[in-house]
Amino acid sequence: MKALSALIAGQDVVSQDNLFQSLNPANNNDVVGTYASADKPLCRDACVAAREAFPAWSATPAPVRASVLQNFAHLIERNKAALAQLVTREMGKPIREALGDVQEAIDTCHFFVSEGRRLYGQTVPSEMPLKELFTYRRPVGVFACITAGNFPVAVPSWYFVPALLCGNTCVWKPSEDTPETSLAFYKLLMAAGIPKGVFNVVFGSGQITGAALVSLVDEGLIDKVGFTGSTEVGRQIGEICGRNLQSPCLELGGKNPLVVAEDANLEAALSGALWAAFGTAGQRCTSLGNLILHESVKSTFIKRLLEKVSELKIGDPRSQEIFYGPMISQKFLNTHIQNIETLVEKHHILLTPKNGRISSANDWGTFSGDAQNGCYAFPTIVDNVQKNDRIYKTETFGPLINVMTYSTLDEAILFANDTGYGLSSAIYTTNIETAYRFKTEIKAGMTSINNSTTGAEAHLPFGGNGKSGNGSRQSGVWVIDQFTRWQAVNWDVSGKLQLAQMETGYISPTDLILPTQK
Ligand code: UN1
Questions:
Q1: Nearest atom, ligand 1, residue 446 CA
Q2: Domains of the chain listed by start with CATH number
Q3: CA of residue 150 to ligand 1 center, whole Å
Q4: Which residues contact ligand 1 via a Cβ below 6 A?
């Protein structure tokens, strides 16, 4: 059997080696698609195609490039329902969230379409007469990008919409958990009018295809790498890019804190914490990790949180009623179960009665779906977590949160900051000084005041510090610095050589203005 392995210069490339299936995680027997992991020669072909397409695409006026992205927005809008259904079927997020995932791509297009009419440079005064200085944003070149399966439409759009707008050509290695959604994304982009070779896809696993693609940085075939995924892989990519003097765009893990202060609006905090913890089955980079409760509200908060958790509707993600569906795939479910087994220690208190995998023999009261075959997990809350515990510092990427208790704001901020990660963060408080101190002293790249840790809007900078990334930011005007390089131009029209710093007409001050006394 042969399956699709790559899309290079507008052509389908099939292979019979390294086949893999994308399964619907709600039941594990609906095969969404069969693909073949692209090998290194195929990744090389994709990069060469992107290099060949670069001169013409980068020379295309930015407003014309933007018109293609306008078409893309239109096509996604027209196909929004079908695309969201595919996202739900392939990676299991509830349909309401899948529609949001698709909407985030539309929002991203809308923002960057008008950026095609800006992409401003500057005119800068020169220190010499008859000389002008300018700055221009120039595209970087071939952009190779590896994305995760949890936001299979929004996050690729965060990379490719601005990358293409800025005149770069692309090679994409989408998650092996969402190849069919990625193929749909590609088809819409091609139908929008992207020329052949400007956007290429290599399907496959991280170990085979991802590793092969990134190794081509050493061959000089790639000018910029983007990666959303684990800190461990991000570090390897950073090393390869670093020895080639490149700075990748890395969006890595998180262990996001949510603080509930003594003066918080508890109802709002409960909804925010519940959503941050268990929305998308906890599989967002921005999902809640450490819930940090003031000692005076802890018992009330926990009691009400557990009530709300017991009412959560888990099950078939096609239903509008469902709070969360299956994990992205069996692999994610296995890791989640392993995390509970290895990270929960003796002094911890499991507040949730059932933990790990939901099955037909051991299910959840309101569950509706295929518990026997689907990748469903119980919500897990671990109390009495301390700062030195491994679970406090480990990203778990599933429906699992820690509870910590604090008495002073200093302590809460320390707990929020000390995990080594610094992606998202949140505080619930009605005290202005507490909110002010939190937003000033938190080390995370993103902070919510009286809002959940998740739900960043598509035109604010997205990214983290510490183990969450390398300081790069996506979205909004900020990401343009990832996809362009500044060129400084000076233009001398004097007709002669004028030496900067040496032949300037700087006017020296006359120092001795006031009479001195003898
Ligand atoms: C991610 O998990 O990689 O802020 C992206 C949020 C979404 C994007 C998450 N808008 O939760």
A1: 4
A2: 40-252+471-487 (3.40.605.10), 256-459 (3.40.309.10)
A3: 9
A4: 104, 150-151, 154-155, 228, 284-286, 454-456
The set of residues, in sequence order, having a beta carbon less than 8 Å from that of 224 and lying 6+ positions away, is: 140, 141, 142, 143, 144, 163, 168, 246, 248, 249, 482, 483
CA–CA separation, 185 and 180 (whole Å) = 9
Count Cβ neighbours within 10 Å for each residue of 125-163 and write b for 16 or more, e otherwise: eeebeeeeeeeebebbbbbbbbbbbbbbbbbbbbbbbbb
Which atom of ligand 1 is nearest to 148's Cα?
3
Distance of CA 6 from the midpoint of ligand 1 (Å):
27
Q: What's residue 177's pLDDT?
A: 98
Residue 193, pLDDT score: 98
Number of residues assigned to the chain: 518
Residue 384's pLDDT is what?
A: 98
422 by DSSP, 3-state: which? strand
Catalytic residues: 251, 285
Q: What would the pLDDT profile of 229-258 be if each residue is shown by its tens digit? A: 999 999 999 999 999 999 999 999 999 999
pLDDT in tens, 159-204: 999 999 999 999 999 999 999 999 999 999 999 999 999 999 999 9
Residues of the chain with pLDDT under 50: none
Report the DSSP pairing between strands 131-139 and 123-124.
Answer: antiparallel
Give the ranges where 79-123 is alpha helix by DSSP (H): 80-91, 95-115
Whole-number pLDDT of residue 517:
84
Q: How many A from CA of 502 to the centre of ligand 1?
A: 53
Instruction: Tell me what percent of the residues of the chain surpass a pLDDT of 70.
Output: 100
> In this structure, what token pair is assigned to residue 334?
């296995």
CA 297 to ligand 1 center in whole angstroms: 29
* Distance of alpha carbon 463 from alpha carbon 160, whole angstroms: 16
Residues contacting residue 203 through CB under 8 Å, at least 6 positions apart? 4, 5, 6, 35, 36, 37, 38, 173, 174, 176, 179, 182, 209
What digits encode the pLDDT tens for the residues 354-382? Answer: 999 999 999 899 999 999 999 999 999 99
Taking the CA of residue 251 as reference, the ligand 1 atom at the shortest distance is 3
